[in-house]
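Figure 6 in text form: structure in, sequence out.
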């Protein structure tokens, strides 16, 4: 678990990633639970070792949305994303797209889920 956390980018350590019994855990909190040798820590470690989030598809979407809602407001509000049609989005505009459940917002959520899968599988 310490190897997993150590290889993870610092910005990822405090974003929700794992779900256990309806509670979302950040990698840092999961690591602390494992270090305390708690029953929750043992379950979280199993999730990480098997490369899973402990989630259903709807849970993954909710966690991805929460992660984006936490991260996007911290970015400078300058163009971050552009479409082939020429539309340009700032982080605050992307957040609006996500919250409005537009096709752009849905794509960002799907991309975040893929990113989450990569993070949980770091070895």
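Output sequence:
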């Amino acid at each position: 678990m310490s190897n997993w956390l150590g290889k993870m980018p610092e910005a990822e350590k405090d974003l929700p990633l794992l779900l256990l019994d309806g509670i979302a855990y950040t990698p840092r909190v999961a690591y602390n639970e494992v270090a305390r040798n708690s029953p929750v820590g043992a379950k979280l470690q199993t999730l990480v070792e098997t490369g899973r989030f402990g989630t259903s598809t709807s849970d993954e979407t909710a966690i991805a949305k929460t992660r984006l809602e936490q991260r996007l407001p911290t970015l400078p509000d300058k163009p971050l994303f552009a479409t082939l049609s020429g539309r340009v989005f700032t982080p605050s505009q992307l957040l609006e797209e996500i919250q409005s459940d537009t096709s752009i917002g849905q794509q960002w959520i799907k991309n975040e889920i893929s990113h989450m899968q990569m993070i949980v599988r770091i070895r």
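Caption detail: The radius of gyration is 16 Å.
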